[in-house]
Structures
1.
Amino acid sequence: MKPALVVLIFSVAALAAGYANPASDDPLRLPNEKHLRNIRQLSNGGENAEAYFSGDGKQLIFQSTRDGRACDQIYIMNIDGSDVRMVSTGKGRTTCSYFYPNGKRITYSSTHLANADCPPKPDFSKGYVWAIYPGYDIFSARPDGSDLKQLTKTQGYDAESVISPNGKKIAFTSTRDGDLDIYTMDIDGKDVKRLTSEVGYDGGPFWSYDSQWIVFRANHPKSEKDKAEDCI
């Protein structure tokens, strides 16, 4: 595969906030929603997030805090919301799940090897915070959760993993070299390569359809004041 080209996004505008919505005969259209139609609620109760389609479009994989659990685990369900089942270990905290393109395996990050208990919740008193737990490692498993394999073993946060459409590479975010940067590795965890090196946050990578480009979020502080604010 040719070296992946990297595209850097500095900001994303919210498209659907604050617009007046004209009268609509669509019963599933949300009030004040200008852009989206035919919206269907697939989950009820708990906290549910980061859902991604399987390659054949028949299932969704997502993280959820439900069933009386103290923090997120990984679940799979049909695209109509039926047949919900947990596929992670039930230990630690999990995030960033994804289907392999052929549907034969999944990947997600978990802290269960560092500690079977949920890690402490971050302080949200000053706004939303994404916790960079150093116990996160990336794992792969069969879609039923069996045959769990650890893909990263380096000290530090390893998460936000996504698989290239050709099924050959995984892009992810890691603090293994002391800063939040983007890396790629083979589907089995080998041949790890660092793609970014600027000080600051580089995360949330995503592949283009031809598996040759990566888009990601970034925040690179330019002053000591900016650095201090980024740590809040």
Note: Residues 139 and 150 are 4 Å apart (CA to CA).
2.
Amino acid sequence: MQAKLLTLPVDAGRAIVEAGAVIACPLLGTDRFVKFCRERGLSINRERLIRLERLGLFAPVFRVRTPKKDTSPFYIPIRKGNNWFTKKWAWDTTGIPLAYEVPDHKDQTQEGYYSIFQIDYLHIILQEMTLQVQLDSYLDRNEKRSIDWQKNGESWMQYAASCLESLRMHKYRRSVALLCQFVSNRYYPKTQGDQRTVQVGGGHYSDQCNRKINPALALR
């Protein structure tokens, strides 16, 4: 019953951002999150990551789109009168079933932001959704016995559908990742080094969608 030990509150991703729980562990844009995962041995790319989101298996903490007109930067902690969630330029993506349209992986008009703590759950999903076939077993067979590829394919698809349903219902691992992010400002620094004070730089930059963001605070 591990799947029901911890459940996701509504708009958990928005709560993380509005609480400013991204200072010690900044959220990563899609390409940076892919790089982060690949450096740790996960076989993932942008296309597959977004496909998993479309299937309702794995999603970013939130998404943000580029406003159609000039606007103030999206600061975190959020400043009064400048909450992009309220203005519908950013939206929570932690709920299942999905309540938003997932973009094509080539779409550069919006960006998803992920937590480093989500890598554990992503690893589980990739294991469940990656088929491993021992090709030598097909070579080392009686030549008179043909391979029923259709039967094999149907069996694999049934297994995939079963995994899909199970993973969609399993909230525990997803919840743990978001909980770790929510408390990261308080506890993550204590897990690093000798707990000496670390100064975080300031300044601003614009990402590939030309959104002005404070790198010392959040969406790096």
Note: The CA atoms of residues 81 and 87 lie 9 Å apart.
3.
Amino acid sequence: MIDIRGIEKSIPHRYPFLLIDRVLEVDPRKSAVALKNVTYNEPFFTGHFPGEPIMPGVLIIEALAQAGAVLMLHDMPNRDEKLVLFTGIDKARFRRPVVPGDQLILRVEVVNSRSNACKLRGFAEVDGQKAAEATIMSALVDRAGQ
């Protein structure tokens, strides 16, 4: 398991854009499971939607991409010198709303990978029900100034 401090050591995202709270499982170069506790205090709920808060689908996909970035960088010795960039998305589908109080379980599986790129299949679930799914492509690049 990787707690929030470990996540912050892996990826550069920070509040309010860090969208995973914990990584529950990592099978290096194969898969990962992360979680996001969705709270009413999320800044995006102010405008999406007043009186009917729903987590934006694009942020659910971003949470999957962040879980994928942790997976890609997990056993990389120089991970602090690398950055995972989101390069594409295919087959995104949204199945149910994600609302305050939900616990979002994020599952990512490697479809294929190379030394500098990866294609992942991601699934987001709430209470065992699929909330969203997508195929995510990412590139591994050197961080600026490295």
Note: The CA atoms of residues 12 and 29 lie 20 Å apart.
